[in-house]
Amino acid sequence: MGELPRRHPSVAPVGLTGRARAEAVAAPGPLTFAAVPAQPAARPGPTARPGPAARPGSTARPGTTAPTEEPTPATRPAATPAPSDAAPAATPEEFEQPSSARVYDYLLGGAAHGAVDRALGDRLKCSQPGVVELARENRAFLRRAVRFLLAAGIDQFLDLGSGVPTMGNVHEVVARSRSGARVAYTDVDSIAALHGQHLLAALPTATYTAVDIADVDAVLSAPGVAGLLDLRRPVGLLAFSVLQHVREDAASLVEAYLRRLAPGSALGLSHFTDDDPRTGTAIETETAAYPRSVPRPRSRAEVAALLTGVDLVDPGLVWADEWRPEPGRPAGGAEARGHWAAVGFRQ
Ligand SMILES: C[S@@+](CC[C@H](N)C(=O)[O-])C[C@H]1O[C@@H](n2cnc3c(N)ncnc32)[C@H](O)[C@@H]1O
Q1: Which residues share a beta bridge with 342?
Q2: 40, exposed or middle or buried, with CB in 10 Å at 0-12, 13-18, 19+?
Q3: Could you tell me the distance, in angstroms and rounded to a whole number, from the CA of residue 160 to the centre of ligand 1?
Q4: Sequence-separated contacts (24+) of 56-62 with Cβ below 8 Å
Q5: Helix spans in 152-277 (H)
Q6: At what angle do helices 16-25 and 131-151 cross, to 10 degrees?
Q7: Most buried among 87, 101, 208, 282, by the most CB within 10 A?
Q8: pLDDT score at 104
């Protein structure tokens, strides 16, 4: 096993108070979009909350809070409609081919998929009976990681490869926190993005952009990202079960995003792996049918190499179900394991 990423050097890394708060905020259980409580009206922008820049050890860039004449994403009241991206144009071929976003939605019990996605999902369930649990474990980790980051003071998220924003996705966790935090979703799948834009249309604190995450400039300059998030302030960069679709040099991509984000920014990451012999191979075989993004599982050492610019919080890089499990849900209880997972702060 290669060199592992450094954990944060102290038991109390930056965000210690946040960590304590993170555990208090825990609210287990998936939500559906229909269950999302209304966002508080006219909540002040994220600058009203003390952010991670206040954490010891983080260095706020000079001038990051300088007043500007035009409303910035940070000063724009959350009740203002979110900036919208153009609706993506889905091609007929996209409807005829299974996609990772929609098969995943099917496995999670969502409704944003077609017959072709269900067919692949059913084949996966036969060849790999643990696949549904694996998808649920990954989403459950997403929720715990987002709750942790919210409690640490992160109040804006850039979610790479979001999938369909239902079944307990980021804005639903945020809604439960009543923090008013903002969420910019991105995905290359235009049908998932269309669903996302439709679902989020009434929510002033979330956007959905159809974009390839390999193009960092395109992501960071998209209206739904640059118009919603204040990139001069810390951002929670989320990359859950997506970097396996970046076959080459995913480490440089992670580094490029982190370099462009403000000090105090954080990363939540999970990554598909075939390290567990009970899973992986069957999933790889079936998902080779994805026309656009055949996944490349990575070993723990390879995932660790993606995290070299990040100070990980405890427990470091572990199986998704082992990352700060819910009280009453002992770590290591999962039948099938398919994702390595970690959360940390940009160095
Ligand atoms: C397994 S799903 C994970 C969804 C969500 N992040 C989660 O963990 O619940 C992988 C997602 O990554 C998206 N994806 C794959 N390659 C991508 C790329 N190059 N740019 C943006 N999204 C991508 C897929 O469309 C899909 O929605």
Answers
A1: 269
A2: middle
A3: 7
A4: 56/14, 57/14, 58/14, 58/234, 58/263, 58/264, 58/345, 59/263, 60/263, 60/264, 61/232, 61/262, 61/263
A5: 170-177, 190-200, 216-221, 223-226, 250-260
A6: 130
A7: 208
A8: 94
CA dist., res. 183 & res. 240, Å (int): 14
Residue whose CA lies nearest to ligand 1 atom number 3:
241
Confidence category of residue 57, pLDDT binned at 50, 70, 90: very low
Residues counted in the chain: 347
The encoded tokens of residue 217 equal 């400039």
Q: Is 335:131 a contact under the CB 8 Å cutoff? A: no
Ligand 1 pocket check: which of 293, 294, 339, 340 to mutate, most ligand atoms within 8 Å of Cβ? 293
Distances (CA, A) of 3 to 221, 241, 274, 302, 307: 34, 22, 19, 9, 11
pLDDT for 115-162, tens place per residue?
Answer: 999 999 999 898 888 889 999 999 999 999 999 999 999 999 999 999
State the Cα–Cα distance between residues 181 and 259, nearest whole angstrom: 22
**pLDDT attached to residue 78:** 54
Rounded Cα distance between 335 and 140, Å, is 15
Q: Whose structure tokens read 């905020």?
A: 25
Site to probe by mutation for ligand 1, drawn from 136, 220, 245 as the one with most ligand atoms within 8 Å of Cβ, is 245
Q: Which H helix or E strand runs over 211?
A: none
Nearest CA to ligand 1 atom 11: 161
Rounded distance between C-alpha atoms, residue 148 and residue 273, angstroms: 24
- Which domains are assigned to the chain? 92-346 (3.40.50.150)
